[in-house]
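Field log, afternoon session.

UNIT: design team B
ACTIVITY: writing a sequence onto a fixed backbone
BACKBONE:
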């Protein structure tokens, strides 16, 4: 979800001075105070990350390629650029965070996924599988700067897991300049949908919007390294906005280690820059304010997820999240989740080949509550 423009200049290393968000948000001041994301684990689901580019030298990145994907230079450039916004030592928002980078196949960018990426209903390597893998591996904040098959039931249960376990998911709203809930992961409850503003603080015409938008961030211009020519492409998009927000949330986790994820989401919502502190479909609760986030103690806020019911209603509902917690969700809708045990009453799940979850019939806490 980025919009490349003409190449800017040749192959010297990209610096903080080249990236509009760095000075806009005063990230040099955050670094001077020691807020660098140290101790926080971020995951990103995106194109393949090329860790050999000079901007990422010294960054703590683990790249996971979950299945055989013949990757295009376009998607690789996208993934590498998003990773750089997150953790590049020179200009990353959270340069000392640990980054877990999972490759997603971007079919429309020319990627070709082999049969092992989709060899059965139980092992399709799609966003739900990757979200669960990131959580299996200990991610605390997950960035998703891509279009989504947001109607998939299995995605709902991966999001329910993230809500119940306190893993914050951040997703770009899209660059189609329209209501884009259908194609954005931000459709789901709990997910931080991000639209784009410019350095003039105004919403960008390319930025999509919708009921799932929670906040906004500067969407460019930034420089992404062109992996074909080694030149630098000037780029705009909500693919830029989302990792800026993800990085700031990583800084907040470092700054406020005793706060719950729900309290950090409360902090994000309550410090949004909408003049009336209300919500709208274009910028959510308002553009992000990193200074206020790093200077406002979230312990004063309730330990309640403020994104559980988005405008107009959203899923998973609190009851659906409780179904997940209680282990009564159909286990064939749960894929690659190492924390889930089916505890319902359906005996057929014992022999169902699509059930890959441990199964302990009749042990759900909901059967024993008074």
């Amino acid at each position: 979800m980025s919009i490349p423009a003409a190449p800017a200049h040749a192959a010297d290393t990209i610096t903080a001075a080249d990236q509009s968000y760095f000075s806009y948000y005063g990230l040099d001041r955050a670094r001077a105070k020691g807020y660098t994301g140290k101790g926080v684990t971020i995951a990103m689901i995106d194109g393949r990350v090329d860790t050999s580019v000079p901007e990422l030298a010294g960054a703590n990145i683990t790249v996971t390629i979950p299945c055989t994907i013949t990757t295009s230079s376009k998607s690789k450039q996208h993934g590498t650029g998003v990773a750089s916004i997150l953790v590049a030592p020179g200009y990353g928002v959270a340069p000392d965070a640990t980054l877990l980078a999972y490759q997603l196949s971007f079919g429309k960018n020319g990627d070709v996924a082999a049969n092992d990426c989709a060899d059965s209903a139980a092992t399709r390597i799609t966003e739900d599988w990757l979200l669960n893998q990131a959580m299996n591996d200990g991610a605390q904040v997950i960035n998703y700067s891509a279009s989504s098959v947001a109607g998939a039931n299995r995605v709902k249960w991966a999001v329910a897991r993230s809500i119940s376990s306190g893993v914050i998911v951040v997703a770009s709203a899209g660059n189609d300049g329209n209501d884009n809930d259908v194609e954005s992961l931000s459709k789901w409850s709990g997910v931080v949908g991000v639209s784009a503003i410019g350095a003039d603080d105004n919403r960008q015409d390319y930025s999509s919007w919708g009921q799932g938008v929670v906040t906004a961030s500067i969407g460019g211009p930034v420089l992404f390294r062109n992996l074909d020519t080694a030149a630098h492409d000037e780029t705009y998009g909500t693919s830029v906005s989302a990792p800026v927000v993800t990085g700031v949330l990583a800084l907040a986790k470092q700054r406020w280690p005793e706060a719950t994820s729900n309290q950090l989401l409360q902090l994000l919502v309550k410090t949004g820059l909408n003049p009336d502190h209300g919500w709208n479909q274009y910028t959510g609760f308002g553009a992000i304010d990193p200074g206020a986030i790093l200077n406002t103690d979230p312990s004063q806020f309730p330990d309640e997820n403020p994104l559980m019911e988005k405008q107009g209603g959203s899923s998973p509902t609190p009851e659906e999240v409780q179904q997940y917690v209680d282990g009564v969700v159909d286990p064939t809708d749960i894929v690659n989740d190492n924390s889930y045990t089916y505890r319902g009453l359906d005996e057929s799940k014992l022999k169902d080949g699509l059930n890959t979850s441990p199964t302990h019939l009749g042990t759900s806490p909901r059967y024993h509550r008074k």
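LOG NOTE: The chain is about 25% helix and 15% strand.
NEXT ACTIVITY: expression trials, pending approval
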